Amino acid sequence: MSAKVPIFFVFVMLFALSSANPSKRKQYTPCKNLVLYYHDIIYNGKNGANATSSIVAAPQGANLTKLAPQFHFGDLIVFDDPITLDNNLHSKPIGRAQGFYMYDTKNAFTAWFSFTLILNSPYHEGTITLAGADPTIKKTRDISVTGGTGDFFMHRGIATLITDTFQGDAYFRLRIEIKFYECW
Amino acid sequence: MSAKVPIFFVFVMLFALSSANPSKRKQYTPCKNLVLYYHDIIYNGKNGANATSSIVAAPQGANLTKLAPQFHFGDLIVFDDPITLDNNLHSKPIGRAQGFYMYDTKNAFTAWFSFTLILNSPYHEGTITLAGADPTIKKTRDISVTGGTGDFFMHRGIATLITDTFQGDAYFRLRIEIKFYECW
Amino acid sequence: MSAKVPIFFVFVMLFALSSANPSKRKQYTPCKNLVLYYHDIIYNGKNGANATSSIVAAPQGANLTKLAPQFHFGDLIVFDDPITLDNNLHSKPIGRAQGFYMYDTKNAFTAWFSFTLILNSPYHEGTITLAGADPTIKKTRDISVTGGTGDFFMHRGIATLITDTFQGDAYFRLRIEIKFYECW
What we know:
homotrimer, 184 residues, mainly beta, AOC barrel-like, eight-stranded antiparallel beta barrel, 1 helix, globular
């Protein structure tokens, strides 16, 4: 009997250890998921009532009401975009996406984002801060969750950006799928 | 006697496991706390000697020596603010808060921050990098600690911003309470 | 015999626990290392073909083709710099460093960085997002890894910036040593 005790304990112990930090399993199963949409209408000098973003910095020779030539390289855009649960611009917002992005390549459309999703609804209360590059030549356009507060206290994870629609410079909508792997 | 061994071990093991990652307890007791103040004097075209921050980008029609209309939407401000342990602008600084913020809403005073506290004193040596939204309509204005070096190597946590004084566009002071929940 | 079982188990358990979260050992041995170089040529109004970065925001009185006086305080530079494995600008790039930095002090050369290394080579596939202050008066110029994707999924760590060469405003090269302490 006593010879079996060690075996039994090793199993219990291994099981316990493997579940001690469940968010870090090799399978990388998310501990929480979110799918959201946000909607961006850039200011063009005439649409002040509807615009949700504005160019505030631009390279030499460009201006603040028209995206710069050379793949918009050097434009820095501040935004305050409504977040919705579906892809309809006119759905009731559940929060705002606030921050900035900038176009950062002269020979391709790539952007660098840093912003916060501020969720304030019956579903979610808290913020998710994100940062990363959007290299459109890659099949996955993943950026990182760098912080969270409220319902997302200390969370970490990955957000995948998908351009859901792009209507020239007038309007674009991003689908953002957030997978948290560290949830607290 | 041998029958009691398993029970004893289960208790020891559970206790050991629950303390294996103490910073992640459900109670969320901080592993370290800091309370600091930082002081911002924005450049207005005349106060170059005293100013600690400067508007460097602004929306169409605004300039760099006066905060923009529409709740300053689109202004991006670079700062290098002294940090003190109390709320006196003239106390000996223990470091600098360096980075930027931008006003990001057209119909309310909200800002988005990303900056680093560089502490260099007998008390602390290291940096704390922060990012997040400051939605003034919420009672808590929490932003995230996204990184740390030196004494704050790999730390993570939450920083609460509190406007300690606000004298129009001339001067403001923020109280920042940092609670680290992952300390290394 | 049964008296020895507890001792044996205590050792096994302690060993198992100490290796449960190996990336967080007190010795702080990195779980992964990278050494990279990136190369920055700032736009001066004439070098459009070669430039990899551009001033897009500047303080009152400064312009976008010449770094500002007062230690460049207030200049915000967007960059898309080639990354190489050695210090040769003309080596085959293994990726791009994309993001921005700004000069943030009026009486010293200090900068604040936030950017992403986008690696795309036979060696590495993924992104590393970084943020932090570069206080040149300190012997260590450490910034924080705030996120990672792909091969660097959920990684955290510290990056040390070293100015490898600085040729006035024409060209600089940074050596960046990244030590990951949380690798997944």
